[in-house]
Automatic annotation (TrEMBL):
Keywords: Membrane, Transmembrane, Transmembrane helix. Residues 22-197 form the Cation efflux protein transmembrane domain. It is found in: Membrane. It comes from Acinetobacter towneri. Pfam families: Cation_efflux. The chain crosses the membrane at residues 21-43, 55-75, 87-104, 110-132, 152-169, 175-193. It is a multi-pass membrane protein. This is Cation transporter. The lineage of its organism: Bacteria, Pseudomonadati, Pseudomonadota, Gammaproteobacteria, Moraxellales.
């Protein structure tokens, strides 16, 4: 009996709705990257700074996803593998930033954190709702959905951190949220990597 493991199906025709959703997500995330980068630096906030890097990473991921929509499942899975590794590395970088901020000991500016956190939350809720319909697709689609979901959760946590900083005058709530965001990046990256590796194994091109 002939083995069919090396014969993958023809590339799926790109979903126009998914393509449009990716473009919207790309614009939103790139805009929020600049807003949080500037705001995070001004407020001395680790969680805002971390979230700005996450927005930038997501914008790059959405751009890559747009570029490979017409590719075979093997190559879409390969790109998803790279994105999964990037998500995990983001978690490691944020952990390093938390340690650095703790050593510095400068409490962030709570009002700026809260305002930007609310704006970012609204942006990510819109993105997550737009991408929700594609959450059960291949590893590439799944990675896009996980990015938007994690961002929305992270932004809500940033708002809670701002409240905590405002009430205590301590940088600890900000650092705790940054650690949570790093953990989300690590776990989501792990799941995307696992699915992408599985898809690559069963769709190896001849």
């Amino acid at each position: 009996m002939a083995c069919t493991c090396s014969h993958e199906p023809a590339p799926i025709k790109p979903n126009s709705k998914f393509r449009t959703a990716l473009w919207i997500a790309l614009v939103i995330n790139l805009s929020m990257f600049f807003i949080e980068l500037i705001g995070g630096a001004y407020a001395h906030s680790s969680s805002l700074w971390a979230d700005s890097l996450d927005f930038f990473g997501d914008a790059v991921n959405y751009g890559i996803s747009l570029a490979v929509l017409s590719a075979s499942l093997y190559w879409r899975a390969t790109v998803a593998l790279v994105k999964g590794i990037t998500m995990a590395l983001f978690g490691v970088v944020v952990m390093g930033k938390v340690i650095y901020a703790y050593i510095q000991g400068i409490p962030p500016e709570a009002i700026t954190m809260g305002i930007i956190g609310i704006i970012a939350l609204l942006a990510n809720v819109v993105t997550a709702l737009i991408l929700y319909a594609f959450r059960d697709g291949d590893s590439n689609m799944k990675s896009v959905w996980l990015c938007s979901r994690n961002d929305a959760i992270g932004n809500f946590a940033v708002i809670l951190a701002a409240v905590g900083v405002f009430g205590t005058g301590s940088l600890i709530p900000d650092l705790v949220v940054a650690v949570i965001m790093a953990s989300l990046g690590l776990t989501a990256g792990y799941h995307v990597i696992q699915q992408a590796l599985a898809e690559r194994r069963i769709n190896v091109p001849e």
